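note to self — DONT lose this again. spent like an hour looking for the file last time. sequence + predicted structure for the chain T wanted, 124 res
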Amino acid sequence: MRKLALSLGLAAVCGTALIAVAPVATASETGAQAACFTLWDTAGYKDGSRVFSGNDSDFSNNNWSSGKSSNNSANSGKNACSHNVYMYAETSYAGQSYYLQDNSVDSDFGNNGFSNTAESLNGF
């Protein structure tokens, strides 16, 4: 009986240790949190939009929800991520850059000189 109690106690401790060290899901692994960065075609969060859940080195094959190409046409954005997201004027994260801080919004990229400029983004 004593060996059985000791074995059960040891199993409980080991099971707790496994739970304690289990990796936490990242934003890219959790559906709702993964879609935390959104760009819009028009200032004021209007017209077509596109949600991002990871880096994108080339917008040339992306479309807004309206069907129009999203390359060089972003004018507003919302960053609900817990980290900054950087946009670049050229593909592969090159050229002029502009970022939205974590948990922030920008209803008009024009006031920051970045209207119709984004070709890539990263920060995920």
